[in-house]
Amino acid sequence: MRFYFIKTPRIIKILFSRYTWCFSSRKNEIYLTFDDGPIPEVTKFVLNELEKHKAKATFFCIGDNIRKYPFIFEKIIKNGHSVGNHTFNHLNGWKTPSESYLKNTLKTEALIHKTQGKKNIKLFRPPYGKIKHSQASQLLKKGYKIIMWDVLSADFDKTTTKEQCAQNVLQKVKNGSIIVFHDSIKAKEKLYYALPIVLAELSKKGYSFKGII
Ligand SMILES: [Zn+2]
Predict the structure, then answer these.
(1) Cα within 13 Å of Cα(117), Cβ side
(2) Which residues are within 5 Å of ligand 1 (an ion), measured at CB?
(3) What are the residues facing 83 on neighbouring strands?
(4) How many domains does the chain have?
């Protein structure tokens, strides 16, 4: 059985209205997001595909990957995309004491800040979408926007086919949608198939792709 929603139900958006689930529906704009990178091979593929369509996106980076692959992190920023914090070790908020969670997140913030300098916008996405109320409060107080999503491609799900992954996005997307993909080894096969299709089909329909700012 699936343990997640492809399209986030309205009730969840209302109950957790402190978090950002989507943007204005008045414009034909879509917000693609990529979690768990940066890693050289997969992130480079994503950057190339985005460039082909003059698309901008947001990358929620794991701090430890920024540490390992600073050059690819720099390339994301150089290409004009937005970056956000996804903790240093991909922590599950529900299983982590709030103090360690915050410390781990600030470790990534320092790395992002070093590369991005003053332009640093504080965006955070909790790994697994799991974050305690107290953790969220602390991050909001520090000026973070907590970015959730409107549509999951489900590229992380072993039981989803690559075709289904593309369809998940194409069928559920609307103006202002925040869409989740992963620039990870685990999602690679589906991403390599679905992302070019999603970019081509949605461009044809007149959507533009924006980074979160
Ligand atoms: Zn993640």
Answers:
(1) 3
(2) 35-36, 127
(3) 59
(4) 1
Residue 4 alpha carbon to ligand 1 centre in Å = 14
**Alpha carbon of 128 to ligand 1 centroid (Å):** 6
**Could you give the CA distance from residue 9 to residue 174 in angstroms, rounded to a whole number?**
14
Q: State in Å: Cα 37 to ligand 1 middle.
A: 9
The string of DSSP codes covering 63-132 is HHHHHH-HHHHHHHHHTT-EEEE--SS---GGGS-HHHHHHHHHHHHHHHHHHHGGG---EE--GGG---
pLDDT digits (tens, 9 = 90+) for 133-145: 999 999 999 999 9
Residues of the domain holding 38: 10-206
For residue range 91-105, what is the model confidence (pLDDT) as tens digits? 999 999 999 999 999
Q: What is the DSSP letter of 19?
A: S
Q: Is the pLDDT of residue 154 over 80?
A: yes
pTM here is: 0.96
Classify residue 77: in a domain, yes or no: yes
Q: What is the CATH number of the domain that holds 109?
A: 3.20.20.370
Dig out the tokens for 153 from the structure.
Answer: 């491609």
* Pairwise pLDDT comparison (152 vs 117), residue with the higher score: 152
Task: Say whether pLDDT at 124 is over 80.
Answer: yes
